[in-house]
Design goal:
Amidase signature (AS) enzymes; 11-stranded mixed beta sheet; 15 helices; binds glutamine
């Protein structure tokens, strides 16, 4: 029998509005589920049980006082939040030992917006330290495991959020995506993950990794929920000057629209050697289905694709080396004992940061240093412009672009930890969209013979999340993949 922790946002809204269930019923189901599976999945760094009961009672009171046709928005809906998004008064660690005790004195804009709609924070989810990674194995505290196969990784860096949604330990979650960290774990865990256009969602209160690439977005059980959450978290914010003063549509309104005649671009550079055969077949079957729904596949080229990973790892590490300078033992978190001030700085950073974070700080510092800046950082910025132009050219011919989300199914824990380059290559299909700033969504499109989820990615023009939501919804409505559940 399906229990209440398995509900989607829109299903929960309907039942709550009709007073068929109470907020406490859902919350109890969610915590029951956490109690029974969290030991295996390890999706959460912090579970917010005590606080959430008070919020739940409040939400129920509000629901009791409104009519059965009113919009209850997120009143009483249990949502998990990635642990690099600041929540006032609640531990926010970025899965780093350097922030093991950091309790933010302020609320991020996204969680403030969820709060204003009455959500319940279930807990803070695990990630690769400072969102640097593709498997959650770089977490300073624990590795999250894939609910579909506990020997495998859930992807990363938002692996905790994706696994929590897949395991029904919450109704929905927020993640962040700098090079694929929402979409790749969504694909690995068989759920829906959307990276908005750069500037669509405020980054205020998101702990910065690479500020020109970072975006927060929803991880959900279906496309409608993605549209619901995106609408709530989007929009200009005076606290983030890169958030765009652009109208936010009601993203649920585009869902039912026809996709007949929609031109879908298939970039030839994405279907090459090294891609898993089962993934390739699954994606081509999905494209056939879209064709039967009236979409028109068109072969396109994104010629600078082969430079995306290299470009990203210069720019992202450069920005990270600057952003992470603030962790010096003085302002936040860990403070080690040192002989003098300099020794205290050095010891704090040596003890507080994990190996991957240190590697990236060194790479970024090198790329920015005098004498190398022109050869690396500036060159990478130029290539970034070319990659962005690839998308602009492609979008003169097609309405959306379709690709696999990941070149392989979820891999085994430990399989790539000794080889950072292999780990970096797992993002080959997701990184370009961050460099170009365009929106992209990953949704389930099948399973491998080992019963591992496969994701398909739809990419849109700047600020055209509506088109990717529309095609994702059309595909989802004609398939059942999103309804399958892992046998935990
Ligand atoms: N896996 C990529 C990295 O390690 C992307 C991470 C992310 O999107 N935060 O940087």
């Amino acid at each position: 029998m399906s229990s209440l922790n398995m509900l989607t946002i829109s299903e929960a809204q309907n039942l709550l509005r009709k007073k068929e269930i109470s907020v406490i019923d859902i919350l109890e189901a969610v915590f029951w589920r956490i109690d029974s599976v969290e030991e295996k999945v390890k999706a959460f760094i912090t579970i917010n049980k005590e606080n959430s009961l008070t919020v739940a009672k409040d939400a129920q009171k509000k629901i009791d006082s409104i009519g059965s046709n009113d919009n209850i928005s997120l009143l009483g809906i249990p949502i998990a939040v990635k642990d690099n998004i600041c929540t006032k008064g609640i531990l926010t660690t970025c899965a780093s030992k350097i922030l093991y005790n950091f309790i933010p004195p302020y609320e991020s804009t996204v969680t403030m917006r969820l709060k204003n709609k009455g959500y319940i924070l279930v807990g803070k989810t695990n990630l690769d330290e400072f969102a640097m990674g593709s498997s959650t194995e770089n977490s300073g505290f624990q590795t999250t495991l894939n609910p579909w196969d506990l020997e495998r990784v859930p992807g990363g860096s938002s692996g905790g959020s994706a696994a929590a949604v897949a395991a029904d330990e919450c109704i929905a979650a927020l993640g962040s995506d700098t090079g694929g960290s929402i979409r790749q774990p969504a694909s690995f865990c068989g759920v829906v993950g959307l990276k908005p256009t750069y500037g669509r969602v405020s980054r205020f209160g998101l702990v910065a990794y690479a500020s020109s690439l970072d975006q927060i977005g929803p991880i959900t059980k279906n496309v409608r929920d993605s549209a619901i959450l995106l609408k709530i978290i989007s929009g200009h914010d005076p606290y983030d000057s890169t958030s765009a003063p652009i109208n936010v549509p009601d993203f649920t309104e585009c869902l039912e629209k026809d996709i007949k005649g929609l031109k879908i671009g298939i970039p030839k550079e994405y279907f090459i050697e090294g891609m898993d055969k089962e993934i390739e077949n699954t994606i081509f079957q999905a494209i056939k289905l879209l064709e039967s729904l009236g979409a028109i596949p068109v072969e396109i080229s994104l010629p600078h694709t082969e430079y995306a990973v290299a470009t990203y790892y210069i720019l992202a590490t450069s920005e990270a080396s600057s952003n992470l300078a603030r962790y010096d033992g003085v302002k936040y978190g860990l403070r080690a004992v040192g002989k003098d001030l300099m020794d205290m700085y050095l010891t704090t950073r040596a003890q507080g940061f994990g190996a991957e974070v240190k590697r990236r700080i060194m790479l970024g510092t090198y790329a920015l240093s005098s004498g190398y800046y022109e050869a690396y950082y500036r060159k990478a910025q130029q290539v970034r412009t070319l990659i962005k132009k690839d998308f602009e050219d492609a979008f003169n011919k097609v309405d959306i672009i379709v690709t696999p989300t990941s070149p392989t199914p979820p891999f085994k824990a430990g399989e790539k930890t000794q080889d950072p380059l292999q780990m970096y290559l797992t993002d080959i299909y997701t990184i370009s969209m961050n460099l170009a700033g365009v929106p992209a969504i990953s949704i389930p499109c099948g399973f491998t013979s080992n019963n591992l989820p496969v994701g398909i990615q739809f990419i849109g023009k700047h600020f055209d999340e509506e088109s990717i939501l529309k095609i994702a919804y059309a595909y989802e409505q004609s398939t059942d993949w999103h309804r399958r559940k892992p046998a935990l």
